[in-house]
Write a structure and sequence with these properties.
This protein is an alpha+beta fold. It contains 9 helices and 8 strands. The protein has 2 domains: about 5-30; about 45-280, no CATH class. A hairpin with a 3-residue loop joins β1 (about 50-55) and β2. It starts with a helix and ends with a helix.
Length: about 280
């Protein structure tokens, strides 16, 4: 039987074969891609910090400490951060919702230490200088993964002042042992990804499910539909409050962050923590 005649008689089988062929070709291309550490990265994701650890303490260097106004960066400084694991106090879950997309948000963490000291972690799709983020491209091995440790002022004023986004900061209800284990796990993952590169993936390795995996939380759709992650953490009793609406209202802090935009780093941390402690009775 001529091929064309067979195709006309078996249209559904032909379509299935075509789809399977395309999938095999696609998977072949994906498997050939190799993550790298030496691309021409966008400036704010160019340098992941080195992590030095002892049994009791850790140091991060460099920790990015840029400052911003509504037009963009005004200074591009960096610092270092050293603390003891046993000193970690509260851990704060930060959510930057995407406007008009309740299912989508960027999530990050702030770690609080004695003396009004803070350091933050954001897990990012590591863009190259000529790239912009796309959730579709994030499925196709287009971006590497970056674990970036920055000052609280850098992380929050970038979003509130420069990107003009809403920001929510929730306290996490964790035991002292859980806080230290979470921090150690995230530092180890930082070391791993900065020495053995991995691809970012919109579904499997995004800003939220990387944190959920480090916390050893079971899979949930909100680790992919990241805008729903605060509700999930509330349901797990990891975010306190009489109800989620109350917890969410208490967490909104964008206007305050914009008002504190011109503070020095230490003053920003001190003012932010005083406000968070006031709101949450810490």
């Amino acid at each position: 039987m001529p091929v064309w005649t067979w195709i006309k008689k078996h249209k559904w089988a032909t379509a299935g074969i075509a789809v399977a062929t395309l999938l095999v070709a696609f998977m072949g291309v994906m498997s050939m891609a190799k993550p790298r550490l030496d691309r021409d990265w966008v400036e704010n994701l160019a340098v992941m910090p080195k992590v030095a650890q002892t049994e009791d303490s850790f140091t991060l260097d460099p920790v990015m400490d840029w400052s911003y106004n509504a037009e963009g960066p005004t200074t591009k400084d960096s610092t270092s951060f050293t603390a003891r694991f046993a000193e970690v106090q509260d851990i704060w879950f930060v959510v930057e919702p995407q406007p008009g997309q309740p299912y989508a948000a960027h999530t990050l963490l702030l770690f609080e230490f004695p003396g009004d000291k803070m350091v933050g972690l954001t897990v990012e799709a590591r863009l190259e200088a000529d790239e912009t983020y796309s959730a579709v491209d994030g499925l196709l091995n287009k971006y590497e993964l970056a674990y970036m440790w920055n000052t609280a002022r850098e992380l929050l004023t970038r979003r509130a002042t420069y990107l003009k986004k809403d920001v929510y900061i929730y306290p996490l209800t964790l035991s002292a042992e859980q806080k230290q284990a979470f921090l150690r796990n995230l530092l180890q993952r930082t070391i791993d990804v900065s020495t053995h590169p991995r691809f970012y993936n919109t579904l499997a390795s995004n800003c939220t499910n990387e944190l959920a995996k480090a916390a050893k939380l079971s899979w949930h759709h909100s680790w992919v539909l990241t805008g729903y992650s605060p509700q999930r953490l509330y349901d797990l009793k990891m975010i306190p409050g009489p109800d989620f609406a109350s917890a969410r209202s208490l967490a909104l802090i964008g206007d305050e962050l914009r008002a504190w935009n011109d503070m020095s780093g230490p003053d920003f941390d001190r003012t932010l923590l005083a406000e968070l402690h006031r709101r949450h009775g810490r």
